[in-house]
Amino acid sequence: MDLDEVAGRLYALPPSEFTAAREAEARAAKEAGDVRLAREIAKLRKPTVSAWAVNRLAREHPGEVAELLEVGERLRAAWQEQDPDALAELTRRRGDVTAKAGRLARQDSGLSSAAAAEVDQTLEAAVVDADAAAQVREGRLAKPLNYSGFAPAPIPRGRPARRKPPEEEAREREEAEARKAKERQEAEAAHKEWQEALDAALKKHDERAERVARLERKLAKARKRLAEAEQRLEVTRREERHARGRLG
What we know:
Blueprint: H1 3-10, H2 15-31, H3 35-43, H4 49-60, H5 62-81, H6 84-106, H7 113-128, H8 130-138, H9 166-247
Helix pairs in contact: 2-3, 4-6, 4-7, 5-6, 5-7, 5-8, 6-7, 7-8
């Protein structure tokens, strides 16, 4: 058993079943002697409803997801090549495949309007960003995705592609990199905070588990002594009845 195998099982579950299953998996790993794996399992985050819906989509409709991501890959390539005809065609297909995937993700999921919007947001991110596409394909999202960088847009047919001045392109790249750096810093700070909280919770859990184990061992000994006392009591009662009968 490894982390990928466990994560695959857990992120296939509805959010309502995730926490209990994660605890059971961590406990099983610990009982098997793999404390490191148990800790890694305990770090897995419970998915939001929208993230679960996208994970389910990746598992139950891999063909549609593959089509969506393939359109996104081709769209990004067309943008790099500044091919207006390809961009116009792929932008149309992008709308079709994204809408179809969104309908499948919402199907029988009972999503709220807010969660449904997060599903659409995640699918759009997967189309325009390769990293987001890889996460959607893996099917282990814990939260919805959002792409804040520059997204490819169609170029009207019959008009030459307008290349931006180098300084404008450089500025946009710098702004995008700055946003990503800021988001990463915020994510690292949040992770550090939750990591510390997790370590403290694991320590307390281990301490209490050991205390329970000690109490269970004491209880087992006490039960054994009680059984021995009950056995002696029964023998004593039997001998007392026998002696009383001899008096008569």
